Hints:
mainly alpha
Amino acid sequence: MQLFGRVTEGLGTALDLYQARHQVLAENIANSETPGYRARDLQFADQLAAALAPPAPGTAAASEAAPSEPLRAEPGIDRGAALKPDGNSVALDVQVGRLSENAFKIEALTQILSGRYASLKRAIDGGK
């Protein structure tokens, strides 16, 4: 049985993915001066869509008792990033911008989830 609906679980999955991307972007910034370091990014639109897709009927995942699979978010090389003479492809201003945008999305998802949990708490407390 699902304690929370698919929307809440989907929001949690999205939050996990944005947090994983945050880590990748922070690693890029930390390596902005490392010769040969290639900037990485997490393209997770397909992973999020797969996580939110309803399970196929008749599969084990369709069973309410089936545990959800752990999130597998793998970063890849940012192929659009230009290489500097030392082989590093981290553009610090681009990475800081992406990190800022990502942080905004994490904050928004956190507020949405907080509101959903507060509503659930109110329902449990009998509207008090």
